[in-house]
Amino acid sequence: MGYTTERYTAEMSAEAYIEGFRDAERFVGYCRQCGNYGRRHGCPPFDDDPLAMISGFERVRIIGVKIVPDDPLLPLLAANELMEPVVRTLNDELLDLEQELAGRAFGFVGACPYCGGAPCARIEGLPCRHPEKVRPSLEAIGFDVGKTASRLLRLDIKWSHDGRLPEYLTLVCGLFYSTKS
Description:
The protein is α+β, with helices and mostly antiparallel strands. It has helices at 14-21, 24-32, 50-54, 79-101, 145-152, and strands at 3-13, 59-69, 104-106, 169-177. The chain has five helices and four strands.
């Protein structure tokens, strides 16, 4: 199954991003309606306050990727297969940046790309199998990713119709960090 990707980035102050793009009550409310709420380590509720996760950082780097399938008639079920290699690559990049910039990365919603399809250990009340790799998404800590994509990346999120993939899939992730003195 082939695809091409296009990459988008934006940077701004962390304070401006929190002020203009975070609506925790609304977006964490959406999370509560999902069957994964409290059942995946990357999903809320979290032991730490999400604002505490990002407080003290000066900047945020937003990274978006548009995944355009070669076949425009693929079924929606093909989405995970298309996204998985891109998610893994971006997660690895985010984790490298997190180390390099002493920041805090935020990845993607959905199944863990590291557990090979196994149910999340959180279901059994166990610690994450890959805590060094798994990060919550921006949505999971209350950010409006649709608004982030359209306003900061100039990238509209497309939705599926009739059981088919949209013309492209969109991934949005971020890294909060501070400039080095």
